[in-house]
Amino acid sequence: MRNVSILAATGAAFALASHAQQADDAQVPRQAAELPQRLEGTGERAPETVPRSSAEEGAEIDPAAFRFGLGRRASGEEIAAVDIDVMPDGHGAPEGGGTFAEGEELYATHCVACHGADLQGVEGTGGVALIGGRGTLDTDAPVKTVESYWPHASTLFDYTQRAMPFNAPGSLTPDEVYAISAYILGRAGILDKGTEMDAATFAEIEMPNADGFYRATRPDTGPGEAPDAD
Question: Quick check: is 172 in a domain?
Answer without folding.
Answer: yes
